[in-house]
Amino acid sequence: MRQHKPKSVDTLLLTMIVLLVAGGFLIFSSASLGLMARDGASFGSVAFSQFLFGVVGGGIAMLIMSNIYYRNWRKYAFYLFIISLLGTLTVFIPGIGMSHAGATRWIDLGFTTIQPSEFLKIGFIIYLATWLSGVQGKIHTFKYGLLPFAGIVGSVGFIMLLQPDTDTFMIMAFAGMAMYLVSGARWRDIGLIILAGILMLAAVAIYRPYIMDRLTTFMDPAADPLGSGYQIQQSLIAVGSGGITGRGFGQSIQKFEYLPEPSSDSIFAVYAEEFGFIGAFVLIFALVFLTLRGYRTATQARDIFGTLLVVGFMTIIISQAFLNIAAMLAIAPLSGLPLPFISHGGTALMSTLASLGIVLNVSKYRSFRRGS
Questions:
Q1: Three-state DSSP class for 303?
Q2: Which long-range contacts (CB under 8 A, 24 or more apart) does 132-136 make?
Q3: 310-348 confidence digits (pLDDT tens)
Q4: Tens digits of per-residue pLDDT, 96-106?
């Protein structure tokens, strides 16, 4: 296909990304003070790592990705997917992989750690978009549609559940299902996938007690307030303490002594305590605006491949964000997923910004004939 002359990127989408990254780093800096005071670690080293690898590294990755013609990814999609799968498997190599809290998800580089599954998200979306756009006319069949789709998602799930990282696999599968639906899949097949997902979750909950603990805690957070329900209880106290306008930037009390993982899983609770209902509303509005603007780009993409890329990346980002927020508000089970743009994790932020760089490139070639 001939490369069209690029337009400028979607300015509103880019502006919202920049605002979320800048605001997210400030929120992270405040939340990290509690972790540093508690563990006696150096705040400067954690903030510097987040800034260097997440903000700067992610910004460079977004800039590079936004200038690569998105259709070029089709040529290398299979190789990227295989490399990202193999890269994720390296966490199991002794001396390279690192375990924490019963999970093996990181590679220890000595000066920092990286989480390969963050880059697997990108490889997965690019390959799935390539495959779906190639079999679009046969997507409704079992042989060329449901069966290979289940194989692609299943290969990712096998590796992710070995780590185990059920939460990340869940949002990847959800994004894949959204792409599958957009490509023209039958609702009957979507129903079968949902049923299979429920059965898989039930099986995982039986063999992985921590999953069952999360589900039972969600059903009754007050049943074990000093055990499995401790994090959600402290999160609700933090959110409630924020009131309408919050305690003020840096003034959270919960982050110092009570709230587990204040700079990662629980960072929304810290933010809500400091900025209150108004601040929480502004953040949620920004995430919704980013998502809608991204999906708008999907409707204006010049081809189905561009549409699927944007749908996949935006679905991963927004589902991860709202599962994190919902867990802190006790309207979803605790997930352990970081809050995009804000939570501690330079690899996660870099991956998110690289993904959005591809979305921005798609916006350069948008066709206003498909929507304004």
A1: coil
A2: 132/179, 132/180, 132/183, 132/304, 132/308, 133/74, 133/183, 133/303, 133/304, 133/305, 133/308, 136/183, 136/184, 136/304
A3: 999 999 999 999 999 998 888 888 877 889 999 888 888
A4: 877 776 677 87
In a domain, 4, yes or no: no
**Any domain includes 363:** yes
- DSSP letters, 68-135, are S-GGGHHHHHHHHHHHHHHHHHGGGSTTTEEEETTEEEEEE-SS-EE-THHHHHHHHHHHHHHHHHHS
- Asked if residue 1 is part of any domain, the answer here is no
| Whether 270 contacts 238, CB under 8 Å | yes
| C-alpha dist (Å) from residue 346 to 62, 169, 224 | 14, 19, 33
Integer angstrom CA distances of residue 17 from 59, 79, 148, 258: 10, 29, 34, 31
Q: What is the Cα–Cα distance from 306 to 264, expressed in whole angstroms? A: 32
Work out how many domains the chain is built from and give that number.
Answer: 1
CA-based nearest residue to 217, from 236, 199, 200: 236
**Separation in Å, CA 47 to CA 25, 28, 55, 271:** 9, 8, 10, 17
Q: What's the pLDDT at 114?
A: 81
Residue corresponding to tokens 């209902």: 277
* Residue-range definition of the domain harbouring residue 178: 11-370
pTM of the entire predicted model: 0.90
Establish if 3 belongs to a structural domain.
no
β-bridge partners, 97: 107
